[in-house]
Amino acid sequence: MIRNISRYIHGTVKIKVSGSMPEKFINLCVMKNIYLWGLAKRNEGLFVCMSLSDFFSIRPIVRNSKNQIKVVKYYGLPFIIKKMKKRKMMVIGLILFLCVLNTLVSYIWFIDIIGTKAIPAQQIRDIIAENGLRPGMLKSDIPVKNIENQVAVTLPEVAWVGIRFTGIHAVVEIVEKTISKPQDKEPADIVAAKDGVITEIIALSGQSVAKKGDTVKKGDLLIKGVSYEGGVGDSTTINPIQQRIRAKGIIKARVWYESYGESELLTTIHERTGRQDIGVVLRIGQQEFQLKKVAVKPGDLVEVDTFKKKLFWWRNNDIIVESTISTFYELNERNVEIGIEEAKEQSKSRAFTSLQSLIPETAHVLSRNIEVLQMPEKNLVRIKVNVETVEDIGQFMNITIKNEISMPSQYN
């Protein structure tokens, strides 16, 4: 290992010795204490390696051995230095590039806000900008701890805030507090959230209006949010006073859902041909400059992917430089035919997908019914899906009370 490093530092030359007696050249080198290695004999001659300093002293040996030599390879630090001397401007440019790159990396150019849910990201940006974290700031001049404290003090809903630097990015990580919503205590009835047939109803607070087996529609009253002073059904209470309360209860009902899904047996798809073109638009402030335009003819099938990148011009946030790069992909139109069974599966999948947003996760599915509909179009397969569930259909309906006092004649 040390020998290889030494050879690289001092430089190595690989030569080809050709002539009537190449072995004589080797013997003379040994006699002159010239170190050789990598000796290899081939049809075209004898190949051997030596140090760069020894290479300059072998001219008398070559003349005495009556052979010819040819340099076939050379490597090492002296040769690299020689190349660099010939290309001074490239070396200077490389050094300047590294210096500029090191300077740019010392600044923050982009700020990323992560972890926000209820808090607007722009609100975080405004707070950290007021306290010294803006694009174009030197990393060493940014008071990280002070900014973290200011964000936590200004926004009580923030549980933790951390700022870290990743290259030219400043990442502001926010952890919001989990604040439980205050329980609504306003007087309210419980009404049906959807149509169904009641299978179970238990009034924990208030008076049941519906009963098991009733068919209800969306908005129908199920549990009335009232209570009576003196107790319900108390014969000793002549004039019970009705009070409005927040009804509570368990209402489960059978609910039916219906959805449709369809698929074509012969469809037209568009595929990228591999040919593409790029358009570039540069916006500085309010001015736009078309750097590269892509001409799209009417009737051309293309797919466009647009990428926008904003850069803040030095430290002045009022001047924004934005580049818009649009990639235009050429498309090819192709007809694809699928079988009946595959079309049925696609239609069924689409029907169930549309039902997923309607059926709550807590619902218990009782049955599923899938029906293939006869369509006049021969190219179309349509599926109807019916799903029956048992679920809680109660929802609160708040009531505005204005000194409401009633004397019901009867109630259940």
UniProtKB/TrEMBL annotation:
The keyword Transmembrane helix applies. It comes from the Bacteria. The chain crosses the membrane at residues 89-110. InterPro entries: YqfD. It holds the Pfam family YqfD. Keywords: Membrane, Transmembrane, Transmembrane helix. This is Similar to stage IV sporulation protein. It comes from Pelosinus propionicus DSM 13327.
